[in-house]
Design goal:
Its main location: nucleus. By secondary structure, this protein is mostly helical. The protein contains 24 helices and no strands. Helices cover 69% and strands 0% of the residues.
Length: 507
């Protein structure tokens, strides 16, 4: 069903008219005849002078712009050089939007110039759309979106083009090149602010692009996915009412995919949920809810239910890495909402107490396993002592993060008792000294935090009624949590930095 969900998103995102709306071309002068003569520097200089004379100059420039945008359709060269072709494009994208904005003023279609410029604007948008579909130059794409942003207020007057431009901008936003991504994002943000098209439709177009580009994950794509995630969350902040509806729509879509697998579970069906596309989409929605808790807090419970369902689908050991991703998502939700989520501990203990970790390990020469960039473990890794130690490390770190969420709660000594009992019981059966030591260290950290809260209780001389819920000051577990988060962030920085250095050397 996950594949079906992915296909539906892709098909919907690719829906657009096969043909552009009919373009109204600017009228040509009587002396303007079709010629095989190449357009060179002389013609370019004449156009630069004529553009300063107003609408008539704009018409001449627009004719050249149309030819430049459609030069790929011609069998013979039109321009004397690539430089002239490029200058025509840059001049048009920079000067025409300025002219439209200046001539139309603030009242736009009520302006006396509207009838004169209507067809010119229509032609400019049509050819710019063609250009954005074929051009590869980062600089030109950036200039094009700057020009479109300049006349964003006019776009709602041309709905037949604004819809297509938004879709193309969303598509280019999915490009890996940062300049293209950021310039298209800047235009999308402006379009959302001015409500060029329906806000929900715009946000859905952006989400679909993210979903389509989040199918795979690697260290080389990490920054790209992270940047897209931050851009989308920022867009949501411009209209939280529309954002609520969009987040609800896609949470429901993810929950329906989950429901289908729960009804008819199988190994293949589990794979439709345990993949990067589903995880990245879920993380995007979670990050959105966490960023705007005041307006989107009601969606936190459906998100929690989806995560719980995902954690309960299977207990196959090879999927422990992706389960840790889901658990960290719940920990982030707990920290944001400042509400204790009790289901986190049982799922962490389920991994920790797994029978697969008690099996005899085999000597292997496998590389270090990076849980940040992994969804499942191979058979060789499952029997590796190194992998088991890393898994225990990740589980204990996650447990500390989870307990730190209620580390300053006045009731922490009581909350930690079930966790402490389960961990101590488990240490009696662990054969590996390193693993046992790591679990005992985690128990000590939790006990130290409980002692800290107990001391605070005595100092506060708590009344039987009306006692505070939390104690003041930083608790010991917060310090440990900060160390874990810094270490994880350093691993990400180190891997990305080393990858950038390798690419620089290759270049």
């Amino acid at each position: 069903m996950g594949k079906k969900r992915s296909q539906e998103i892709e098909e919907e995102s690719e829906e657009e008219p096969q043909e552009l709306p009919e373009e109204s071309e600017p009228s040509e002068d009587e002396n303007d005849t079709q010629s095989t003569k190449l357009i060179g520097e002389k013609t370019l200089n004449q156009i630069k002078i004529s553009i300063t004379k107003g609408v008539q100059g704009a018409k001449k420039l627009l004719k050249m712009y149309r030819k430049a945008c459609r030069s790929g359709e011609e069998e013979v060269p039109i321009f004397s050089s690539a430089q002239v072709h490029n200058e025509i494009l840059v001049l048009s994208l920079q000067e025409l939007p300025k002219l439209f904005k200046k001539k139309l003023g603030k009242k736009l279609d009520q302006s006396s110039n509207w009838k004169r410029l209507n067809n010119l604007l229509r032609s400019f948008l049509a050819n710019t759309l063609i250009l954005l579909k074929v051009i590869k130059s980062e600089k030109l794409i950036s200039i094009a979106f700057q020009g479109l942003s300049h006349i964003a207020k006019l776009l709602h007057l041309m709905p037949e083009y604004s819809q297509l431009l938004i879709k193309q901008a969303a598509k280019l936003w999915g490009e890996e090149k940062d300049m293209i991504k950021l310039s298209s994002y800047s235009f999308l943000r402006k379009a959302l602010e001015l409500e060029v098209i329906d806000k929900i439709e715009l946000l859905k177009s952006v989400y679909k692009t993210f979903d389509k580009n989040a199918k795979f994950m690697s260290w080389s794509k990490y920054q790209d996915i992270d940047l897209m995630r931050r851009c989308f969350v920022d867009l949501l902040g411009l209209d939280l009412s529309a954002s609520y509806q969009v987040i609800f729509i896609y949470l429901r879509q993810l929950s329906l995919s989950l429901s289908e697998v729960i009804k008819n579970p199988s190994t293949d069906r589990v794979k439709t949920l345990y993949n990067w596309q589903y995880l990245n989409s879920l993380c995007l929605l979670a990050q959105s809810i966490i960023k705007y808790p005041t307006h989107l807090s009601e969606l936190a419970f459906p998100l929690l239910q989806i995560c719980q369902g995902l954690l309960q689908i299977t207990n196959i050991p090879k999927y422990f890495p992706i389960k840790l991703h889901f658990i960290r998502l719940l920990i982030a939700l707990q920290a944001s909402s400042q509400t204790y989520i009790p289901i986190i501990t049982p799922h962490l203990l389920e991994i920790l107490l797994s029978a697969s970790l008690q099996k005899k390990s085999k000597p292997t020469k496998l590389k270090a396993f990076h849980f940040i960039m992994a969804l499942k473990a191979s058979k060789e890794q499952l029997t590796s002592e190194t992998y088991k130690e890393q898994l225990i490390e990740e589980v204990c770190d996650s447990l500390i993060e989870h307990m730190a969420g209620v580390g300053n709660a006045i009731s922490f000594p009581e909350i930690m008792i079930p966790v402490k009992i389960s961990l101590k019981k488990h240490t009696k059966t662990v054969r590996n000294g390193g693993i046992r030591g790591r679990i005992l260290h985690t128990i000590k950290l939790i006990e130290d935090n409980a002692d800290f809260i107990n001391k605070k209780r005595l100092e506060m001389n708590l009344p039987p009624i009306g006692a505070p819920i939390v104690v003041e000051g930083n608790c010991p577990l917060w310090e440990q949590r900060d160390k874990i988060l810094k270490r994880r962030a350093e691993i990400i920085r180190s891997k990305i930095s080393s990858l950038s250095e390798e690419n620089t050397k290759d270049y």
